[in-house]
Amino acid sequence: MRKKDSLRNIIFTDTLGLPDETKPVPAMSVIPDWYKNSDSYVQGKKEPLGKGETSATIKRCMPVFDALAHGYFILTHTDIWISQKEQEYNGKLEIMPWFQWARFEPILFHPAQQAPLYPKESKGNLPKWINPWSIKTPPGYSTLFISPVHRNNVFTILEGVVDTDTHFAPVNFPMFLTDPNFEGLMPAGTPIAQVIPFQREPWQMSIGAESERIEAHLGIEKVRARFFDSYKNLLRQPKDYK
After folding, report:
1. 220: in domain
2. CATH classification at residue 121
3. Angle CA 83–85–90, to nearest 5
4. Do 241 and 27 contact (CB within 8 A), yes or no?
5. In whole angstroms, what is the distance from residue 205 CA to residue 149 CA?
6. Which of 28, 85, 176, 194 could connect to 120 by a Cys-Cys bridge, CB 3.0–4.6 Å?
C-alpha cells in the first residue's frame, strides 16, 4: 500500500452547487450489484474441472475487477426521465427519445449532423451531459473519460482524452442511448462517466524477439502452475484511487 503523501492528487471542483450525495467518488466504492452478487465459483465449489480448468467465475478475474474499480465516477446530479415521443425532426414527425429532468439543466443537444458517420445509432439530435465538475490533475497528467465499464449503462458517452493539467473547465459528455428505444428513469447518483487520470509519456512500438518470447512462455507456465488466483497472488500490482 502506498503512503498517502505519495499519492497523486486529482481535484474535482463543483461549479454548480450540488448536494454531497452526487459528488464524484472512487470507482471502487460503486461496484455493481451483478458483480457483488456473483458467486466466486461455479455452484459454490472451488475445485478443478479437468484439462487445467477451474470452477472460478468472472468474479475471480482480477482484470475485470480492476477495470470496475479503476479511477473515479462522475455521477448524475438529477433524475432523468426518458420516454419515446412523436417529435418533429428534419421536417417530419418521428418517434424519438424525449428527456425530462428534475432540476438544473443537465442535458443540451448536438445536431446529429455533427457526427453522421459515428458507429453508434442515435434517434434525433445527440444529447450532451452538462458536467458541473471541473477536474485538475498534476502537471504532465491527462484524463481519459469513458463509459463506466462492465455495467448496464443507459447512456454510452463519447470517449475522450483531455489534458486536465491545463484545461480546467468542466468536460461535457455527448452520449448515445445504449438502447435507442429505452424508456424509464435514470436516477440521480448513477455513474455516467469513468474518469481515469494517466501520465503522458512518449511510447514506441516494437515486436518482441526471441528473448521476449521466452519470457512470455515462462510467464505462461508460472500462472498455469496454480489452479486458483495465480495472477492475483503472483503478478497483480496495487492500484490506489482514494
Report:
1. no
2. 2.70.40
3. 130
4. yes
5. 26
6. 176
User: Long-range pairs for 115-118 at CB < 8 Å and ≥24 separation?
Assistant: 115/174, 118/158
Give the tens place of pLDDT for each residue, 174-230.
999 999 999 999 999 999 999 999 999 999 999 999 999 999 999 888 888 888 999
In a domain, 91, yes or no: yes
Write the pLDDT tens digit of every residue in 57-116: 999 999 999 999 999 999 999 999 999 999 888 888 989 999 999 988 899 998 888 888
**How does the average pLDDT of the chain come out, rounded?**
92
The total number of structural domains that make up the chain: 1
pLDDT of residue 28: 96
**Residue 180, number of CB atoms within 10 A of its CB:** 14
Is position 110 within any domain?
A: yes
DSSP string, 147-192: PPTTS--SEEE--EEE-TTT--SPPPEEEEESSTT--EEE-TT-EE
b/e sequence 24-53, b meaning 16+ C-beta within 10 Å: bbebbebeeeeeeeeeeeeeeeeeeeeeee
Classified as helix, coil or strand, 135 is strand
C-beta contacts of 82-87 below 8 A and 24+ residues apart:
82/154, 82/177, 82/182, 82/183, 82/184, 82/185, 82/186, 83/183, 84/181, 84/183, 87/124
* Domain hosting residue 90, numbered range: 73-199
Residue 205, in any domain of the structure? no
The cell for 6 is: 505519495
